[in-house]
Design brief:
Oligomer: single chain
Number of helices: 6
Shape: rod-shaped
Helix content: 55-70%
Largest sheet: 5 strands, antiparallel
Distance between the termini: 109 Å
């Protein structure tokens, strides 16, 4: 039977050799270090660089993940909103038709430019029909808005409180829209029960196609 050769390892000598490689190292010139410490330093630097790159990549990925989660929540919210709109589309169409009918009805209550004189006559006749005396009936400057024009009329009438109230009611019941603004009542001295009413009557008319085109052109120039 063959004998197994014995291997004698002097661990103390190996330890002394390793220790000797780490003694007297010049920190300013690692290139002159022995093989073992030089390689260990190389491995340590590589690990530090890899760890730094890994941390940076993880941080960037975490920020991207948070941004994507936020975007996902926003998309979910938009989806729910659009889904509700799609489900209620028929109801919304019916509401739009009702609104359009209401707008058309209101437009029919606005006189055209040609009908303004007749409307002013109706206001005057409403006062005369209630035995009121007109002391002032002066149309002002027409104010042109985006879709309609507004005509203020300075009005001063005298009469009894009851007749003035009926006149205001008649104005409210006209087929065209007329409002009474800045209304004030003042009693007349030495005339028992007679009042003076000062107010601004405002009536409105819709713009014709030429005026609408002019408004849009003017708006475009301002922009």
């Amino acid at each position: 039977m063959a004998k197994i050769p014995q291997i004698n390892v002097d661990f103390k000598e190996i330890q002394d050799q390793i220790t000797a490689q780490f003694s007297g190292l010049d920190p300013n010139d690692p290139s002159q270090w022995p093989v073992l410490p030089r390689n260990l330093l190389y491995v340590a630097v590589c690990l530090v660089v890899i760890a730094g790159l890994w941390f940076t990549w993880l941080q960037t990925s975490d920020e991207e993940l948070v941004a994507e989660k936020t975007r996902e929540e926003q998309l979910r919210t938009d989806y729910r909103s659009k889904l509700v709109q799609a489900v209620n589309l028929d109801a919304l169409k019916k509401q739009l038709e009702q609104v359009q009918q209401y707008v058309n009805q209101l437009e029919r209550q606005l006189p055209s430019k040609a009908e303004m004189d007749a409307l002013l006559s109706d206001i005057n006749q409403a006062g005369l029909g209630r035995s009121l005396q007109f002391e002032l009936f002066r149309p002002g400057q027409v104010l042109v808005k985006e879709y309609y024009a507004e005509l203020p009329i300075s009005v001063r009438v005298t009469g009894t409180y009851h007749d003035i109230g009926l006149f205001a009611s008649d104005i409210a019941n006209l087929s065209r829209i007329v409002t009474l603004n800045n209304l004030s009542l003042t009693p007349i001295k030495d005339r028992d029960g007679i009042l003076t009413m000062d107010c601004t009557a405002k009536t409105f008319r819709y713009l014709d196609s030429e005026e609408v085109a002019l408004q849009q052109k003017s708006k475009g120039v301002k922009k």
